């Protein structure tokens, strides 16, 4: 959401105006059935079965929420360990989960101040219970095996206090370093889990994995079997960790264990660097498709890129989106619209039959930026999406039954016209088509517009981008076009809105040479195939002068590809053909 806004629709309600999200708006976003229940009422007692986390109805589900910063004295994050914070996360972010990151061995942590840190933990846990949220109690350590007796004592206390509620999860080891799973982490985790299970037989226990909770495949090859309801920790930072870590996660899932992303960032692993929105979207798609819950690091105002709040944000303010960082705004859009009951492996529309029309309600997005919903007077009632400004977007997961040409229809209303819709994939890298929105004469005067685009087959994310705003959308639909009626969009050499990237030769055979312009920071080259999959990735150090970078394309199958260069303040794209 944007920070302060004078709407294009004067007769309709103002956006936030610096206040917390109103309960009525939250109800509009979630729908009446979801808003009537707290997350814990909706999902109930969680359990692990068949490599998935299931709700009370034995359905796969996932939660989205926030991790607090270290609880340590004087580290800055402890001021947000309040009931006010938890209430804000629930009511403004639609968070279903909060993680309490209790520092252990470092200065100001549990070892040096057990009473103070325990008090902070209990303040947040009590608030989460009052709000009906799930809460992770995290032993936030890199060396937990050295503090096993203290961990056992602490988690026994937590289990006695909260073990009779379904809200609580126990994260017994945050991020082990590069230590052995079998001889160090697993024995420690089994000892702590045993102490918990003697008191609390069923709430989830989450266990860290080697190499900063990345080697989930290693843990999955030798899982804990002595106790039930065990999940394994996966951590990622989107600007650093890409497909190779998802491959490790997929290996772990294939081996039948449940994963829980108790911490992730949109930035580099250091917590700084640039916010990688494209990589974050790839990760969100993976988590959604595999029903993996996640908590974002961190709800704090530290002057680093991963913080959700700007430096100096008061711990007692009535926060608005004015206080959010770039990362905070991006993450909020995912958490706010996360649908936790995805039983089909990713959410979105059911698979249509070839030739049928599948209608997608505009408000059923799984992620968005900058939009709101309101009641519509269009046929069928319900909600429409509005307050669309340039740069806004809405993302959906759909099942396309077969590759080919599709008729895309949009149900729109616009007082003055002049708007534009773009159908996009891969965080805007792949542009499928654009269409202008006409003047209809009112914000609830509806018409249907359409264009044709080419789409690959399969489950995929499709986004509606807003190059120019000033309209509402009630629904959109897609249906496969017969060969006789087909209208193929012309091939463009670059994605609209991006500068053209210089590449040669084009067509390419064994290699493609890319001209990387002078830049002070690191840039990233990514090659996407026709299905939108990243098939080549390359990080390039910035130089004071232009440089030529060669990409090996010999292994690519013949076809059309798109290469994208992205770096600080720089995005360039170009299509090329592999012969």
UniProtKB/TrEMBL annotation:
**A Pfam cross-reference name:** CBM_6
| Molecular functions per Gene Ontology | carbohydrate binding; hydrolase activity, hydrolyzing O-glycosyl compounds
Q: Which GO terms describe its biological process?
A: polysaccharide catabolic process
Q: CDD domains from the entry?
A: CBM6_cellulase-like
Q: Which domain of life is it from?
A: Bacteria
Q: Where in this chain does the record put each CBM6 domain?
A: 358-479
Coiled-coil stretches: none
Q: Which residues cross the membrane?
A: none
Q: Could you tell me which InterPro entries the record lists for this protein? A: CBM6, Cellulose-bd_IV, Galactose-bd-like_sf, GH, Glyco_hydro_5, Glyco_hydro_5_CS, Secre_tail
Keywords from the UniProt entry = Glycosidase, Hydrolase, Signal
**What family name appears in the similarity comment?**
Belongs to the glycosyl hydrolase 5 (cellulase A) family.
Record-given protein name? Carbohydrate-binding protein
Q: Which organism is it from?
A: Hymenobacter rubripertinctus
